[in-house]
UniProtKB/TrEMBL annotation:
The keyword Transferase applies. This is Glycosyl transferase family 1. InterPro entries: Glyco_trans_1 (IPR001296). GO terms for molecular function: glycosyltransferase activity. It comes from the Bacteria. It comes from Halanaerobium saccharolyticum. Residues 126-251 form the Glycosyl transferase family domain. Keywords: Transferase.
Length: 306
């Protein structure tokens, strides 16, 4: 049996780890574990060590497979410098996994290490737990933080009565304190992932407020996938990834001008929304299977045993 350990800190969200574990544990040859749920972690007892990369990381013995996954580019101050430092300092793994080609090119590894792509996915709960009774006009899912500039969006949203907005996710205390008395804003805080579809599907529109800045504007928006799976109409800032996604899926969303932000519910209601999105294409099992990562790991292990 091939034992895989996914390295996760206590506070890390990373729904893909749960998806990977469910996927690999369907096969008799694999047994996958979440490090954050183990009392004691003895890395030497595992065949595959799987890290989601920041800076640094574990080192393995010659018989182990080290997987480095890069689900996003670096954020915050000097992101491109951080990408460069990671590419030079991080230990060399046996294989790397990237969100997409854009992320791989952003790190610019040139050491010949094998790689594959695995895009962001959604749980099938987002198609099976839809609530038809609408309680909110809009929903926003994700980090409610200044880094994501949600404070700027809320300032514009609350200038007039634009209906009710439910915000699901970790809260910046200052943002919450500023808006907690607004009757049109409902802050749920962080909720269990399994309950998110039930709450979010009570809205008519999903808000995808993404700063038109590197690297946010070139990376997959999981919110978009989840909103569309729930059957919500999408209201989003206008940026490169969203335009490419619209074209790929022959869809039409209502787009906000990030540099001249205005929000008008009446104009949104007049927009002709179109979605030809197929949620099954983004179910986790399908994405992981199509990434071919399972076969690549088996191949690497066979090479180690020679």
């Amino acid at each position: 049996m091939i034992k895989i350990i996914f390295m996760r800190s206590k506070n890390a969200f990373l729904p893909e780890i749960d998806a990977y574990i469910d996927y690999f544990n369907k096969f008799k040859r694999f047994k996958a574990y979440d490090s954050s749920k183990l009392k004691k972690v003895k890395l030497e007892t595992f065949d595959v060590i799987w890290e989601f990369k920041g800076l640094g990381g574990v080192r393995t013995n010659k018989n182990q497979i080290l997987v480095h996954e890069y689900p996003s580019l670096s954020t915050g101050k000097f992101p491109k410098l951080k990408n460069y430092i990671k590419s030079k300092i991080n230990p060399k793994p046996d294989i790397r996994i990237f969100l997409n080609k854009t992320v791989r090119e952003g790190f610019n590894f040139n050491d010949g290490i094998e790689f594959c792509y695995r895009d962001m996915g959604i749980d099938d709960l987002f198609t099976s737990q839809i609530k038809n009774d609408k309680e909110y006009d809009f929903v926003y899912m994700g980090s409610i933080s200044k880094e994501r500039e949600i404070d700027k969006f809320l300032k514009v949203f609350t200038k007039k009565n634009n209906g009710k907005l439910c915000l699901i996710g970790n809260l910046d205390t200052k943002i919450y304190n500023k808006y907690k008395k607004n009757d049109n804003l409902i802050f749920t805080g962080k909720v269990p992932y399994l309950k998110v579809p039930q709450i979010a599907s009570k809205a008519r529109y999903g808000i995808n407020y993404i700063p038109d800045k590197y690297p946010f504007n070139i990376q997959t928006s999981t919110k978009i996938l989840e909103y569309l799976a729930l059957g919500l109409k999408v209201v989003t800032t206008d940026y490169k990834w969203i335009r490419d996604f619209e074209e790929k899926h022959k869809s039409s969303f209502y787009k906000l001008d990030y540099n001249n932000l205005k929000f008008n519910k009446e104009n949104i209601e007049k927009h002709e929304f179109v979605s030809n999105f197929n949620p099954q294409d983004y179910f986790w099992d399908n994405l992981i299977e199509n990434s071919n990562i399972k076969n690549k790991i088996l191949s690497l292990i066979n090479k180690k045993l020679r």
